[in-house]
């Protein structure tokens, strides 16, 4: 037992030492003549690199009636160029011992490869090629659209929580495109065609609308030389103004209830629109601290109250999503335990929110949240791909390099009063959305032929 205690103390001491000896990664940046910005994160521990190209276009930039086109175009970008055959891009990366993929969000689309450092020129040449020379063939349109629809089936349409989350987000935003699903509404995905994809591609895929992030065993001079060779010759394009809709004031609380017979665990959600790190970095930082105080472990305030002390919930938590160009979100979620009703669980959430608004958080909670956030950031530095994603996402939504580098200083400056003021600014009932995901009551479930058949089979097997 004494040895275990000694080991625990040693681990704690090491963590304290690590958080006090904060080492910022070696970061440098430059901009090519065509407007493409590049960021280099040096990490010489292994001879590998993570290469990413981030485009400032996501689902929030889609034209009306074309939801899902940003994500659909991401799929089509792997179909080849004038010089690379369909499927050859990923095949070439794999043959050289690397991995590649891409992802689309509300504010950006990113393409990445992780490969040996001496293959950086190869991946740059191929990524630069498809920046302006992608070959979208008519025969790929229907096939890849079907792939996207099947992806939606798996993630959303066949998942009660996914369907509920989609409806919840649509209710949270009255007008802004953040309320649309990134993958798109099914009815609009089905109508997307080659012209839609080409229009999106020609409008947004350009060097002056992209950020290059390279993390790994490279030097800034090496990256600059290769970037000038491969990306430098691509001509900049005239970028049209953004047509993003604004979000009007929220004057009344909104509620939704969604019942699905496939639900195994009911849930209650409460959400509010909040500032992002771009629109109000100080308030967003305070909200991130509040989220860490309320959630993130069984001893944090929300799960401790609802799962340990009152035994009302199976689980409970809070979240803050602030890495966004226009606005972020702060929210709560919980699942009832035993005979607890969703209304009772919502009442407990209301009680906790009122306590935060009235009394704020304690100095002890603040210190613990800061230490946990700093430790998580230190551990993140062990992953060059995680660092590349952090910097790429932040810069693409509009943050400055200094905002990222000075993150710890800003976090350390947060006070308990800052957290309470941020909570009072955001957690306003009139601006809230409350959602219930529930099972239908027995009398609400119609007995179809399929239902009766299933019940008969179950009875026979039982």
Explained architecture:
By secondary structure, the protein is an alpha+beta fold. The chain folds into 2 domains: 205 residues, Metalloenzyme, LuxS/M16 peptidase-like (Cytochrome Bc1 Complex, Chain A, domain 1, 2-Layer Sandwich), CATH 3.30.830; 190 residues, Cytochrome Bc1 Complex, Chain A, domain 1. It is 47% helix and 17% strand. It is built from 18 helices and 11 strands. The chain has a 6-stranded mixed β-sheet, sandwiched between helices. Helix 2 packs across helix 5 and helix 12 crosses helix 17. It is globular, with a radius of gyration of 25 Å.
Radius of gyration: 25 Å
Q: How many domains would you count in the coordinates? A: 2
Query: Roughly what is the average pLDDT, rounded to an integer?
Result: 91
CATH superfamily of the largest domain: Metalloenzyme, LuxS/M16 peptidase-like
CATH uppermost class of the largest domain = Alpha Beta
Walk me through the topology.
Blueprint: H1 2-20, E1 26-31, E2 37-42, E3 48-55, H2 69-76, H3 88-95, E4 99-104, E5 109-116, H4 120-132, H5 138-157, H6 160-172, H7 186-189, H8 194-204, E6 210-216, H9 220-230, E7 254-259, E8 267-274, H10 281-294, H11 301-309, E9 313-321, E10 328-336, H12 342-359, H13 363-380, H14 384-397, H15 401-405, H16 407-412, H17 416-426, E11 432-438, H18 449-461
Parallel strand pairs: 2-6, 7-11
Antiparallel strand pairs: 1-2, 3-5, 3-6, 4-5, 8-10, 8-11, 9-10
Helix pairs in contact: 2-5, 2-8, 10-13, 10-17, 12-17
